[in-house]
Amino acid sequence: MADQELLTFSETARERIRTFISEDPAEGLAVRVSVQNASPIAPEYEMALIEPLEREEGDESFDASGFEVVVDSRSVALLAGTRIDWVESMEGSGFHFRNPNIQPLGSGPMDGPLVDRVRRVIDEQINPGVASHGGTVRLVDIRDNVVYVTMGGGCQGCGMASVTLTQGIKQMIRDAAPEIVDVQDVTDHASGSNPYYA
Question: How many whole angstroms separate alpha carbon 96 and alpha carbon 86?
């Protein structure tokens, strides 16, 4: 695989990596980049400085204008075409991966008869039911016949959210769309502040 196709770095990311390497006293350092979790819900990447003895059989390596990059064989295909940048924001700073191979949920267009049927069930059956608790359910994505939803309002952080999902939402969606194999809640319930049930 050509170096340019595997990984590219913004100049800001390159500068940051060169700084990390220059501050480390070890010799022969390279940057290992790997995919730890390829889940579209929360993809996880790892970047670490490694010494020559930490290389593994099957690693691919290339020069990235001033430092060597090492990618394990399992991550090569998942990282192909990825661009890495260094981002600073109010939440903090760090490396940001723009990876065309791992699309986060909800990043693509949602249309078609299956999406229409699932949306109709959510809008006409599910949301009127959870509205009495101040809750809402939103369709995030459908992939490989798995429906991904978020629960908001009184449903976010509610101790009964998993019961609502398994005993109500899943059944209603599967009744309307039998090809659906699962319904997954991808809500961050830890940040819910007003649960209906204590």
Answer: 6
